[in-house]
Design goal:
Chain lengths: 308, 531
């Protein structure tokens, strides 16, 4: 599995701090621009990276993303029917190039944000967040942990409870479905609160209530410096462009159109490079190992060759 | 090093004293086993040494503890959700950072602990990838990484299968004997753990009833009709058979085997009569197959069996072989990929809502079943499903019938693991389904509750119900009409317990292991009677 090798090449050569700066940078990239070209480029690069960092339980997340995408497009086409270039018309709905473009921009922006958070979720771990927040904002760190750790947990509780509830309730499929759903939600919330209480006990047994100041030093590698610098400079670059009103279109209006000029291309390329950095670093690390390090340092024994 | 003197304690949200006039001394290097029935206050007593875990006040007496709070470690009975971070390595780092250790010390500590516990390979696995036993081992390592003087364990083995439980106890014993760490362990039964302890205390209604050396304590407990059920099968059998030999309890299987051979002529094998099965088939499984993913292995592999009216079936086998998954597939929480399930002559599928009325499932985590704020509410909800005009007096009556009246105003989530299990079971019995599925029903129950459970299940079977249970508890399995073993997704043929256990070498009851040379059919202590 070449993707796995590239991914581990990337993970081995960067530290958590530079990953966080990178994540901040991709979230900003997916938030600030609404030029269709940039949005599309950001979308493709994020999709590529998301696929690269894919975890096992990602099917549901991608399904959810597609649903959000489609609903946004359909809603927008219905609500905003401005524009003059009519593509087709059915009763109550007039689809124009402009309205389709507006809908597309919004849908892709949503999806970009979802993908950025998906990547965030697969690259960070609970401990990094704890390290960052617990120094000054101890209680916020706990809230963070509860959200990261317990949203999937609550979904699981919900699924199990709603299934088991059918065995306890004789008229599950009878009348009053809405009120039953409300009952069910209340039950699920009660159970979630009970399991939150449990976490607070766990934190106490692990000594979090008397957490001491910890010294932590991150050792930066060359990859780290490159990764950090590119991410950080892109953040500054993106904000400058927004300040200069480049990369934005008149979203929602009847005159929205694809605007291509050299600035847009530069923004797209810079963001493309920044977003795909993990893959670039991974590929570089892998090739460096395969064609240089393993040739020069390891012997020519058959066992060693197998690892090349 | 710890001394409770005339100590009384009350929870902030309760009127009643949870601990009353406790006198107890714990010395350096002790391995103290603390038992008592559910709700007797044993966990409360344990948590007094970790005051941040209990909200309440001391009403009387003193607790003299010479050990600083951060030199006392605590392990709860829950195996899941004990890790705050993703993997053991992060977890260890997190704990050590909370204590303010330097990077280098942290690194060395993790190296030490990981090699001592043999968990180097588990350091980077996520919680989903670890088995129950491995998780509990990591919890134990997390508790010891800070180098504590006292280790408090609250029913650490109640969620584990017998093999994993044995391994954990051996590790706790090693910590006690090699590192001289003082151990206080709360348990709900005395199977397997008495060998390692040097003291045994019983707590009843918040007071210490007995506190002796293990041998004396076990012999005294036998004299008490209530506590004699706590004895391990081997010790109970030894006491029941009244051998004249003066042996120190607990006995191991080898000693007991020798005694049985010596006294063979004075002992009689008794078997309780078995039911004859000539009743009608209710549930049939035909070639049932299930796997989670296309490329994953088959969890339920071409399973075929039939369940008959009024009969009980028990499925045994180690953790992770697909026992719980099988129940989920039968109850249609997960859909089988092939094969079919026939209930009362009709094929079951998730559109056929009949199954929700005819079946009841008690899951591994009983709390998932609860829907109300109080125990009273739970029972009331279930009774109202059959008769919407039920009065609160009638609910009270049912609560009294099942010994739950005292708990009626407590939130079901505040009950102990054993009480939750018992309440969920009562809910199932009130529903009175055609087939009752129980996933590990004896988990966390004390021996007397298990006996009560037997009685209730016998009554249910007598009305024509069908019982299908998964269990690690082999003594419990011997009470069923049929037993089968699951491994690699396949089920062995359902056999009567004697036939099933007769040819098992490892996977059988302790009495059976110890008596196979003299009484090969004996499975529990009541199969052996003095002439």
């Amino acid at each position: 599995m070449i993707v796995k090798k590239i991914y581990s090449g990337f993970k081995q050569s960067v530290n958590n701090f530079s990953i966080l700066v990178y994540l901040l940078s991709i979230i900003i990239s997916s938030l600030v621009f609404n030029n269709p070209i940039i949005v599309l480029v950001v979308f493709l690069s994020l999709l590529f990276v998301a696929k690269f960092t894919q975890r096992e339980d990602s099917k549901g997340y991608f399904k959810f993303t597609v649903i959000i995408f489609l609903t946004t497009i359909i809603f927008n086409l219905i609500i905003n029917q401005r524009g003059s270039n009519v593509l087709f018309q059915i009763p109550l709905l007039r689809v124009t190039t402009e309205s389709l473009l507006n809908a597309g921009i919004l849908a892709f922006s949503f999806v970009n944000l979802l993908l950025a958070f998906y990547i965030y979720d697969s690259l960070t771990n609970v401990k990094v967040i704890f390290d960052l927040l617990s120094k000054s904002l101890r209680s916020i760190a706990i809230v963070f942990i509860l959200t990261i750790k317990f949203i999937p947990k609550i979904i699981q509780i919900f699924e199990n409870t709603s299934f088991l509830y059918k065995f306890r309730n004789n008229n599950y499929h009878g009348n009053g479905k809405v009120s039953k759903q409300m009952d069910l939600l209340e039950i699920v919330l009660n159970k979630s609160v009970a399991s939150f209480m449990n976490v607070s006990d766990v934190l106490i047994t692990k000594g979090y209530n008397e957490r001491a100041k910890v010294s932590r030093d991150y050792h930066g590698t060359k990859s780290d410096y490159i990764f950090f610098t590119v991410s950080f400079l892109t953040i500054i670059f993106n904000f400058t462009m927004i300040f200069l009103k480049t990369g934005k279109v008149d979203f929602g209006s009847a005159t929205v159109k694809f605007g291509i000029n050299s600035n847009i291309i530069i923004i797209s390329v810079i963001n493309l490079i920044m977003i795909t950095m993990p893959i670039l670093i991974g590929v570089f690390q892998y090739l460096w190992w395969k064609w240089y390090i393993s040739k020069t340092t390891a012997s020519n024994m058959p066992t060693v060759k197998n690892f090349r | 090093m710890v001394h409770f003197k005339n100590y009384s304690f009350k929870y902030a949200n309760s009127q009643k004293l949870s601990l009353s006039k406790v006198d107890l001394t714990i010395n350096k290097g002790d391995f103290l086993l603390l038992i008592g029935k559910t709700g007797s206050g044993k966990s409360t007593l344990l948590k007094q040494l970790k005051p941040d875990l209990v909200v309440g006040n001391i009403t009387e007496g003193t607790l003299d503890c010479q050990i600083a709070d951060n030199n006392i470690s605590y392990i709860s009975q829950f195996v899941d959700n004990q890790m705050i971070t993703e993997c053991a390595r992060d977890e260890f780092n997190f704990i050590l950072e909370n204590r303010g250790y330097s990077t280098d010390t942290r690194h060395m500590r993790i190296a030490e602990v990981a090699s001592y516990f043999g968990i180097i390979d588990l350091l980077d696995l996520t919680e989903q990838e670890l088995s129950g036993g491995q998780k509990q081992l990591i919890n134990l390592a997390s508790a010891l990484i800070t180098d504590p003087d006292i280790l408090l364990l609250d029913e650490p083995t109640s969620q584990l299968d017998p093999i994993a439980a044995e391994k954990l106890l051996q590790m706790v014993h090693k910590i006690n004997s090699e590192l001289n760490v003082t151990i206080v362990m709360v348990e709900h039964s005395l199977e397997r753990n008495t060998v390692y302890a040097n003291r045994l205390a019983i707590i009843e209604s918040g007071s210490i009833l007995l506190d002796e050396k293990v041998d004396t304590a076990l012999k005294k407990m036998y004299q008490d009709n209530f506590y004699k059920n706590y004895l391990s099968q081997i010790d109970r059998s030894f006491m029941e058979l009244k051998f004249n030999d003066d042996m120190v309890l607990p006995l191991n299987n080898r000693q007991f085997n020798k005694l049985l051979i010596e006294h063979k002529d004075g002992i009689n094998y008794v078997d309780s009569p078995r039911k004859v099965n000539n009743s009608k088939k209710v549930l049939q499984l035909k070639n049932l197959e299930f796997r989670f993913d296309f490329e994953s292995k088959t969890i339920v592999d071409k399973v075929n069996f039939e369940l008959d009216e009024g009969m009980s079936y028990c499925l045994v086998g180690p953790n992770g072989v697909g026992k719980s998954t099988l129940i989920r597939v039968i109850s249609q929480q997960m859909k089988q990929q092939s094969g079919k399930i026939v209930l009362d002559g009709e094929t079951v599928n998730n559109k056929n809502i009949d199954i929700y009325q005819k079946l009841f499932v008690l899951p591994q985590n009983p709390a998932l079943l609860f829907v109300a704020d109080t125990v009273f509410g739970e029972i009331e909800f279930q009774l109202k499903q059959n008769n919407s005009e039920i009065t609160s007096q009638q609910v009270d009556l049912i609560l009294k019938q099942y010994d739950l009246f005292e708990l009626k105003d407590i939130s079901p989530y505040d009950l102990s693991g054993g009480q939750q299990e018992f309440l969920a079971l009562i809910i199932g019995l009130i529903k009175n389904p055609e087939v009752l599925f129980l996933d590990e029903p004896t988990k966390g129950l004390d021996p007397n509750m298990v006996l009560k459970l037997h009685e209730l299940l016998e009554d249910y079977l007598a009305t024509g119900g069908i019982l299908f249970a998964n269990s690690h508890d082999l003594v419990f399995a011997t009470r069923f009409d049929y037993v089968s073993m699951m491994f690699d997704g396949k089920l062995s043929e359902f056999k009567q317990p004697i036939e099933f256990f007769r040819d098992k070498f490892f996977y059988t009851t302790e009495i059976n292991k110890a008596s196979r040379d003299s009484f090969p059919d004996a499975l529990t202590w009541n199969n052996l009677k003095k002439l």
